[in-house]
Amino acid sequence: MSFSVSILGSSSALPTSERNLTAHLLNVNERFFLIDCGEGTQLQLRKYKAKISRLDHIFITHLHGDHTFGLPGLISTFNLLGRKKTLNIYAHPDLEHIIFQFLSFFIVQLSYPIKFHPLIFNSPQLILENGKMTVHSFPLKHRIPTCGFIFKEKPPLRKIRKELIEFYKISPKDIPDIKKGADFITEEGKCIKNEILTFEPGPAKSYAFCSDTSYTEDIISQISNVDVLYHEATFAHEDQALAQATQHSTAVEAAQIAKLANAKKLILGHFSARYKDVTHLLDQACQIFPNTMVAEDGLKIII
Amino acid sequence: MSFSVSILGSSSALPTSERNLTAHLLNVNERFFLIDCGEGTQLQLRKYKAKISRLDHIFITHLHGDHTFGLPGLISTFNLLGRKKTLNIYAHPDLEHIIFQFLSFFIVQLSYPIKFHPLIFNSPQLILENGKMTVHSFPLKHRIPTCGFIFKEKPPLRKIRKELIEFYKISPKDIPDIKKGADFITEEGKCIKNEILTFEPGPAKSYAFCSDTSYTEDIISQISNVDVLYHEATFAHEDQALAQATQHSTAVEAAQIAKLANAKKLILGHFSARYKDVTHLLDQACQIFPNTMVAEDGLKIII
Fold first, then answer.
1. What is the pLDDT of residues B235-248, one digit of tens each?
2. A39-49: per-residue pLDDT in tens?
3. Domains of chain B and any CATH numbers
4. Where do the DSSP E strands lie in chain A?
5. Which residues of chain A are within 8 Å of residue B73 when distances are taken between CB atoms?
6. What is this structure's pTM?
7. Minimal CA separation from A101 to chain B, in Å
8. Of B66, B227, B239, B297, which one is the catalytic site residue?
9. Residue of B13, B46, B107 lying closest to A16 (CB–CB)
């Protein structure tokens, strides 16, 4: 199953000529999940040729403009394209009123429904579950109510050895049970053990998104053992006072969280526009958590 | 005096991977004037390294999202940068309420004042005048109230021949009058005629912006003899029925307007996303008005 994330924007509140405002696009088995929607997100979706017809769920961490101002344009574009399917938006409960009030001046009638799913900000919450995956929100520590999100594949089914389907004359109707672990009885009444017919699938993957937030170990239990952790690193270690004042994190703090959470990989992002080059933020993080990389607009990470 | 326009976005309502949403940046003697502000305008201003600290006036043709959704982000960015100067916005009178209501959820207190200048939509109007230039609005013909704008340099002063300043010992205090046409009396009492001391300056330049609009000859008197006319050409000639239905123009219609107005140059833009290549729109226009060019994002035109 494909499981990847594309970085659409990696700046903090001030965009630069190299870094757009925050948005990540998660691909889970060719269904798309947008996390945050800063201004220009629909332009980045076009640039990187995302299949927006397969985007049905948008997750908004918090109601700061650099994470939300792309919503009116994206919602309008879906309307111009004649979308019919429901668009699900998971966000602070105020967002529904804000967006509909603003759009009422520009759009008479949307061609599709939007369902707002209100987040809560004092405890973790299961906000989406389907056959393939779960999504949980969990509180971050910022100036206004803010959530992180963790996307987890469900443990995949066992893989069937294709050459044995023909050999044992297994009918298509028996395959789902075999993938779940059942043995197979042949026409001659012989029992073929499941471990002969199938093999272990790849492990279930997970992706956690933590922006914007100051350093908080309260999130560790939510993101423990995550495959890829995106954690904001707005500031370098030497600017920790700024991080504290604005309730953001340093690169060192992001790495400490990744280490404590036993993450497999860390992506740093949401960089302050003051850093023309973020190599020293990467270096600072790598001293604590070596498997760290830097978010760049257009970067796609296979999880 | 510098007088140029930079195209920041050249798509119509649906952006493409090559064309952003509408915005033009006019440079008049290193003061900047933004015309329309589609989503992503602040990102384009960054990309093309515009001096946004010198941007004090924004002109909005009409209240469709593809011409306005960049305003919240640009206004927020000015705020983050600690702007103090007044920002002037010339637009439909409803925009003030729409913008302040929306931003009230995101910004507690702006660091600078915004002055909204309401446009009228039934007759031409002088909306800005300073020592260097005038700006007039004039009605276009679209589905909602829409204005075009024409920016005109004031006739420049005569240019003084620098080598004669020393020769006749002209003092700095006499130069302004000479530039305005005065003769000069030397220390010996000899009268030096102005036409000896000065020469004709370049002609006053003008730029007209007409988007969105169906074909209307009502605008001809407003834009006659303009140096550069930007006129929307959302559709090709063969799609004229679509142009009529949506109150947009074809490339042929834009060229007819340029010809009737005796414009010196025509720029086509606001292209429908259905045209991967707009060469045939250019060809159609050139048959009627040869000095036509196509808007491309990032293109700068010296007027």
1. 999 999 999 999 99
2. 999 999 999 99
3. 3-154+203-302 (3.60.15.10), 159-199 (no CATH)
4. 3-9, 23-28, 31-35, 55-59, 87-91, 114-118, 125-129, 133-139, 147-153, 159-160, 184-185, 191-192, 198-199, 206-210, 228-232, 265-269, 292-294, 300-302
5. 21, 39, 65, 69
6. 0.91
7. 8
8. B66
9. B46
